[in-house]
Design goal:
This protein is mainly alpha-helical. The chain has helices spanning about 1-10, 25-40, 50-55, 60-65, 70-95, 100-115, 115-130, 135-140, 150-160, 170-190, 200-220, 225-230.
Length: about 230
Amino acid sequence: MARQTRKQEKSDPVAAGRFAAGEDPAKREQIIDGASRVFMKLGFDAASMNDITREAGVSKGTIYVYFQNKEDLFAALVAREKERVTLRMRDILAGSEEVEVGLYRFGINFVAHITSLQVINAMRTVIGVVDRMPSLCRQFFNSPSMNVRTVLDDFIKRHVALGNLNVEHSDLAARQFIDMTSGTFFKLRLFGDLCDAPPQVEVDEVVKGAIKVFMAAYGVHDTSVIAKEAEHA
C-alpha cells in the first residue's frame, strides 16, 4: 500500500505537494505582490517584466508560465484588489442589522479605500491606458461579480425586503450613495488637489450627510440610530 501511495504521488504533483505549471496559488500571489511593488514604484509604462521578475524573486521562465505580459499581470492585480475590498465591504454590511449603521460603516470604509494611495495610483494607471487597454478599463469599473456597488445593492435589496427601505431601483440608489459619500474626496485625490487621505472629521460629516439624504429619499423610519454608531466609531 505504501509503495502504491508513493507511485501515486509521483504521478500526481498536487498529491505530492506540488502543482502543475502555472497552478501554484502561492507562487502566483508572490508574482502579483512583486508586480504591485514595481507598479507603485515605477508606474505601469516604465515597469518591465524584468523589473517584476527581480522584485518577485522568480525566474523569467516562471513568470511567463503564469502571465503573458505586464498587461495581464496588471489585470490580475486589479482583479485581486477588487475582490479583497468587495469581500471586506460584504462582511461589513453582513453584520449590520440597522440600515443607517450599515450605510455609515460602508461609507467610512469605502472612502478610506477609494482615497488610499494604492487605489489612486491604480486609477491613474487605468486612465492612462484606457485607449490601448479598453477591456481592462471595463473590467476595472464594471465587473458585476466582484464589485463594491453590487454589494451595497444587495444590502439595499435585503432591507427593502425587510420593510426598512422603499427603493424602486436599488442599483441607482447604491450609485447615488457611493457618489454622495466618496465623489468629491475621490476627485480631489485623483487630480492631486488633496495630497493625503481626507481628514476623518470631514469624512464623518460627509457620510452622515449622505445618510440623511439617502434616508429622506428611501427610508421608512427615523434615522436617529446613526448617532449611536457614530459614538462608537
